[in-house]
Amino acid sequence: MDLYNRIYEKLEKAGQLHLLSTYDGLGDEAKASLLQQLDAVDFDLMGKLYEKASAASTTEVTPAFNEIEPLPYLDTTKMTDAEKVALSRVGLASIGKGELAVLTMAGGQGTRLGHDGPKGTYSIQLPGDESLFEIQCKGIDAVAKRAGYQPHWYIMTSTINHGDTVAFFEAKNYFGYPKEKIHFFPQTMIPAVTEDGKLQLASESELLRSPNGNGGMFISLANCGLLDVMKAHGAKYLFVCGIDNCLVKMADPMFLGALLTDEKQPQATAKSYIKRDPGEKAGIFCRRDGRPGVLEYTEIPTLYAEMKNDNGEWTYGDTNVLNYIFTLDAVERLAALGTEYHIAVKKLTYLDPETKQEITVPKGYKFELFLFDTFLYLDDLQVVRIERTEEFAPVKNPTGIDSAESAREMYLEFERTNPRKWEEQI
Ligand code: UTP
């Protein structure tokens, strides 16, 4: 049976034949591309995800845990300069030996920001007009100069923004960083589904898909062969961050030093800051049912959200910054394991199979893997508490909270006060 007939049968069985409604009018190349995209779809999985999504709005949400406990943390905000310098020297020595690889997750769609192009190309209007990518590159290079080694930088894109991302780096001459040390890889995509359970076309020859969440990083990295490349370069640790925190300390030697000097030899370390108030819309670190993890703000009962310890601090106050270092062994193991997709109810734009016109519906389902769900599989996770004002200025929205404006203010304030003057002693 040829590919077309095989796919026709597959779609008929799944009730998705409308996905071939544009097929006959396509050229040969577009036909082949569409068939290839449809061939890659796991319709059983999509059926199960749709069932879960449609049930979620009608059934009670089950509690996210039976038992929680706080996770111990290393509080760098209370350390002396000498202690921070000592940790940083350990990290820097490892970076100097080429043991740290750096990875930026830049595959998101940045829907809230609404910027026309990959989020990393966005400028928060600093005096030098640097893009988020350039800010990160400068951060890596500053550490590289101290370490005497320029780490390899891996950038996760999606099939939607891959071409524009690579073209941007090319146009900017890779910000002066060695081109052969920057590696781009698109993450896995997963179809979105309309409320009636149908997959849709984004254009006449393209299936409507979205990036499969930041938790797709491990498997995407392994599948494209770059995990092997990392190992071949001698990396032992992987620094991971998002693209949209303009104060992120790229390749932070102190962070790596914290992991390397932890007697418990955890497989990963994660940065946290103390939440501003109990209702802050952010996930917090904890041990849930005996395993390290993150509880979303929607999953924390008020009792726990407001609980304080004997020192008057929030018991569950360590907020997830989306900045981690994993041992490469852990990355390899996590890439081989699966976690469950989360459902995001989002606006969808697609080609109406009847009219062949683009339409937008307010409610459809996208599916995402969350990186922090993998913590469950770690024996131990170190939490490193940092000062929010020094390291966390996210760019999520065009205005207001976590916007370009608030991030720019924090960035300029950081530059003005230079709270990391102690780094000169490293
Ligand atoms: P967010 O969850 O804030 O998503 O991503 P986003 O795409 O930037 O913005 P919205 O929600 O659509 O407005 C946090 C980080 O994870 C990356 C993003 O690029 C960002 O650096 N990410 C997110 C991925 O790399 N892939 C994904 O599938 C999702």
What report would you give on this structure?
This protein is an alpha/beta fold and 426 residues long. The protein has one domain: Spore Coat Polysaccharide Biosynthesis Protein SpsA, Chain A, CATH 3.90.550.10. The chain is 31% helix and 22% strand. It is built from 13 helices and 18 strands. It has helices at residues 3-14, 28-39, 43-56, 81-96, 132-147, 162-171, 217-223, 226-232, 253-261, 302-305, 328-335, 388-391, 404-417; strands spanning 68-69, 73-75, 100-105, 153-157, 182-186, 189-191, 193-194, 201-203, 206-207, 209-211, 237-242, 268-274, 284-288, 291-295, 318-327, 342-351, 358-368, 381-385. The chain has an eight-stranded mixed beta sheet, sandwiched between helices. A three-stranded antiparallel beta sheet has the order 1-13-14, with no helix packed on it. Helix 5 links the parallel strand 3 (100-105) and strand 4. Helix 4 (81-96) crosses helix 9 (253-261). It is globular and about 70 Å long. The termini are far apart. The mean pLDDT is 95. Uridine 5'-triphosphate (UTP) binds at residues 105-112, 119, 156, 187, 211-214, 242-244, 368, 396.
